[in-house]
Amino acid sequence: MRSNVTSSSTQERPTSPWHEKLGPGVITGAADDDPSGIATYSQAGAAFGYNILWTIPLTYPLMVAIQIISARIGRVSGHGLATNIRHHYPVSLLYGAVVLLLVANTINIAADLTAMGAAVNLVVGGPTRVYTVGLALFSLVLQVFVPYKSYVKVLKWLTLALFAYVGVVFAVKIPWMTVAARTAIPHPIWSSAYLTTIVAVFGTTISPYLFFWQASQEVEDLEAAAGQHALKKAPWLALRNLRRIGSDTWIGMGFSNLIAFFIILTTAATLHAHNVTDIQTSAQAATALKPIAGQFAFLLFSLGIIGTGLLALPVLAGSAAYAIAGAFRWKNSLELEPRLAKRFYGIIVLATVVGLALGFTSIDPIKALFWSAVINGVTSVPIMVLVMKMAAHPGVMGEFTIAGSVRIVGWLATGVMGVAVAAMLVLLTV
């Protein structure tokens, strides 16, 4: 996937080790498999077994395309998505996108914190609510008081927690020939429940908060690195940066989709195979695994929930803060001290505290979670249209407007999401 790059950029030479080029894409991809995503994938695998696996290879290139485009908008323009929308589109579109993002992210934070507290309880026992509050405070301290350069290293290491879901597979028996067949050839079930689950899987895989986060992280990296400038103003820096964005995103999203595949595979091979078809939480999935797959699988699944939650919380709260700050022209950077960006950090604190509070109300955060994934799928469509329009806008991208395969696959991703949402709505109204 390539876009227009001027010949002056060919003077660049890559100088950094490969692992230093990995950053926003890897973190974004790993954050996609948060406890709420784990619950959605677990429910999909438990309810429909191997018949949902085909969605993962389908969503991979679509997810890569839209995330590459989002990242390029940030690196080329030097601004996040919200700021670019504010500059080039009606303010009503901006406020609508930001409000939807904040609501969906806050619900996700509530579900993630609840799942993390429950996972600690499963492993060590004790008061779940105390663990939930402690994890929320711990995450807030990291986000608010640890500088971005240091914090991003912590986030990179937390991505390793996702390997827990690869390890679980080695503790259970897998019919690999069936898995290969169901992955390569869809076996759809024409029901509203099946299509709603597909939209939920798409919505938790291709989510608006990931677009906003990766674009903003490219801006953070741009401002944190000496000698770097927005590519629109410094086209000679384009070749290395666009290649890095490509490799970073392909690897990050590949990592994300691989883990999603293993979560669905694990729950299909264990829970669905033993007629456990209604899993509402990631912690419930871990508990259900214990008598079927053993203590090792149970521990890996539980510890993975905690690690991925710590990775996802800053992405959820941070993407909402970037969007709102961009909409209202506030200072926004995780590298800034809290006193210099009070309103930006205030949104991070507010989203986390409200999410924490939701977990202590009578609202069922897990039902809200599943439907928030569906809502993410529905709201992704107009936001993806906006992202695609911005990426082709010379005012946003200068000479680096998207072209060729990246543009085709980006619009294909938007179309697939639109068709899935439309099919779900039709069946729900029949």
At a glance:
This protein has 430 residues and is mainly α. The chain contains 18 helices and no strands.
Task: Describe the SSE topology.
Layout: H1 24-31, H2 35-48, H3 55-77, H4 81-88, H5 91-124, H6 128-145, H7 148-158, H8 164-169, H9 176-184, H10 192-205, H11 208-224, H12 238-270, H13 282-293, H14 295-328, H15 342-358, H16 365-391, H17 394-397, H18 404-429
Helix pairs in contact: 1-11, 1-12, 1-14, 2-10, 2-12, 2-16, 3-11, 3-12, 3-16, 3-18, 4-14, 5-6, 5-13, 5-14, 5-15, 5-16, 6-14, 6-15, 10-16, 10-18, 11-14, 13-14, 14-15, 16-18
Give average pLDDT, whole number.
82
Please state the overall shape, judged from the principal axes of the Cα atoms: globular
Q: Tell me the total number of β-strands.
A: 0
CATH class: Mainly Alpha
Q: Work out the strand percent.
A: under 5%
| Separate helix tally | 18
Largest sheet: none
The fold-level CATH name is Amino acid/polyamine transporter I
CATH architecture, by name, is Up-down Bundle
Radius of gyration: 21 Å
- Report the uncertain regions: 1-15
Tell me the span between the first and last alpha carbons. 40 Å
